[in-house]
């Protein structure tokens, strides 16, 4: 395993374990709109290293392992960390924007950062197929995962499915998409139709998100 990915997994595991047993620690560093608007901007980063339980932690770290290896090798460790942190920030900023009127909205988890890494991987390797431990007999092309993920996140925001921060997922995906194009503009040549389709879905939601959610 790439050292930077291993390091991120270890930090996430250790910080999450601390949060499992220490409510004061958990509450001090989780994403909470009211506290962030009062000046505690650091929560947009620290919340990305906390998780609700072992299942939440395990799913995010498995996704980081699955999609992160190729991205780290392709970009190098410094740029990989840029993608991870920018995606985490975008996830937090977009969550803050979508929930700015709900001072008690809170969230935790690395989903925003992992979403960005996932989209970086999709842009780099759009035709690569992935199989998952939950569906070992099926494989899914990367571009289909990207489209499905965006549509599910948008639907989840509209329907408020579960106790899931779908806005952070979408914000992280947008961050990963944007920073990958900035760092490696030649990825456009990999699959321009797929890239335009993903970009189009993102743009439509950014421009008409409120109207879509109110349908």
UniProtKB/TrEMBL annotation:
Entry's transmembrane regions: 103-125, 132-152, 164-183, 195-212
Subcellular localization: Membrane
InterPro entries registered for this protein in UniProt: Peptidase_S54_rhomboid_dom, Rhomboid-like_sf, Rhomboid_protease_S54
Domain Peptidase S54 rhomboid as annotated: residue spans: 39-184
Record keywords, A-Z: Hydrolase, Membrane, Transmembrane, Transmembrane helix
Coiled-coil boundaries: none
Molecular function, one GO term: serine-type endopeptidase activity
UniProt-listed SUPFAM superfamilies: Rhomboid-like
Main location, first listed in the record: membrane
Organism superkingdom: Bacteria
Recorded topology in the membrane: Multi-pass membrane protein
GO cellular component: membrane
Pfam families the UniProt entry points to: Rhomboid
Family classification: Belongs to the peptidase S54 family.
The protein's name in its UniProt record: Putative integral membrane protein
